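// run 5 | inverse folding | seed 20
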């Protein structure tokens, strides 16, 4: 068994599928697996961690092994759920608070801008932290609910007053959410 694992099943071909944000070459450079590594001993968790830490728009990673020598990396991209203004630039985050871009120069159309939160620290591929934890937690819960419900077209999310949260839809309709209680049901 040891001989079979270490000698016979070596990675000869690595394929990457699913990402619209990154070309295969970039994914293969950042996955941490090279030709000649053991196919069966390649850690799915380590490959996923390498890719998610080095490529911000990678949302999830699954691995397939095709014997005798092919490793297939399946990627699901994440997308920008909200924008936070920061000293003239913008921080792009996904629905879980992962920082996708920490220094965007322009707003992306169709992505809501968030008001009512101040950032404490942010680094690409890591979860953003907020000075006021309550407002930040409510924002993340709201983004998850909006994503789950499939709502698009929001232009602003305001969590300044956690008992009077509101969203602006299509630059013209104000959606009063109220307090953070039962956010998923409200959305």
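// decoded
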């Amino acid at each position: 068994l040891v001989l079979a694992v270490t000698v016979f099943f070596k990675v000869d071909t690595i394929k990457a599928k699913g990402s619209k944000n990154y070309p295969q070459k970039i994914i293969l450079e950042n996955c941490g697996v090279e030709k000649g590594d053991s196919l069966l001993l390649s850690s799915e968790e380590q490959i996923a961690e390498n890719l998610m830490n080095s490529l911000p728009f990678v949302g999830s990673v699954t691995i397939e092994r095709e014997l005798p020598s092919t490793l297939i990396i399946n990627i699901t991209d994440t997308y920008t759920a909200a924008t936070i203004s920061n000293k003239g630039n913008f921080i792009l985050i996904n629905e879980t608070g992962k920082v996708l871009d920490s220094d965007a120069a322009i707003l992306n159309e169709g992505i809501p801008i968030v008001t009512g939160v101040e950032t404490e620290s942010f680094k690409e591929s890591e979860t953003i932290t907020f000075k006021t934890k309550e407002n930040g937690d409510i924002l993340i819960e709201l983004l998850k609910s909006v994503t789950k419900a499939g709502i698009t077209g929001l232009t602003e999310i305001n969590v300044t007053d956690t008992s009077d949260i509101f969203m602006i839809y299509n630059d013209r309709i104000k959606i009063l959410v109220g307090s953070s209680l039962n956010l998923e049901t409200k959305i």
